[in-house]
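Bit of a strange request maybe. I'm writing a small parser for structure token strings and I need a real example to test against, not something I typed by hand. Could someone generate the tokens for this chain?
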Amino acid sequence: MENLTQCPVCKEINFIPFIDCKDYTVSRETFTIVQCNSCEFKFTNPRPESKDLGKYYESDDYVSHSKSNKGFINSLYHIAKHYSLLKKIQLINTLSKKGKLLDYGCGTGDFLNTCKVSGWEVSGIEPNDLARNTAKELLNSEINSELSENSFEKNSFSIITLWHVLEHISELDKTIETLLSFLKSNGILLIAVPNCNSYDAKIYEKYWAAYDVPRHLYHFVPKTTEKYFKNKGLSLERTLPMPLDSFYVSMLSEKYIAQEANKSAGLGMIRAAWRGFISNIKAISKQGTSSSQVYIFKKGAF
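Reply from user aminoacidic:
Good idea to test on real output. This should exercise your parser:
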């Protein structure tokens, strides 16, 4: 196990336990999330070493790496994904003239394919072999398995996206700094991450599925997300909610509660729908409290 001695955001060395969560997807191990005493950033600590993280993704239940529609929740995920892809490309096309786009952590390539069809010149990075091979076949082009300083031409991309990927990156600073070197001046960095300030996070506490330990190494809120990227020289243009996430995360959370009690989820799915709805209503009335947030950052001209 790897034990971080500095906060990933502010580099302070003092933090306290925040919550213990179980990995319901693969290992059934329990992991601790700590909170920085200075900036209040939350992160999984200790965590598996980078070389060991791959085994925690080896499950058919990890749907972002799979095309499987097996099971009620997986089926809903894929239905919602088609709707989300339409909303994503609508957003992307408002942010920049069409040019080169990089999706870091592109999964099975559906978002990249949607962008390609819309006229973007696309590239992707995906470390998972199964997901990467699916993306290669879909796009009929090469997808890199890892990021290096020589992966792409410097200052070449108009937009770089990380859809629910930032929370998975073990070498956070190195990866972000490398990605920014590929982004044009005034280019857009788009980040989507779960928000542990949301209503559903507070209701489900240790069962909140978006803690997703140990795959999620960091647990963001608007304050710490903006601080981290401001320190990297980016300016926050705007934030947007991801309303479908509250329903999906609530359903998974209810599933975990049922598993712990050795019961069928049953009425829990109805409760999940209600809590997802309430979470979205609360997010409308109080900005920055949606289950997941999209952050649109701009790289300054140097």
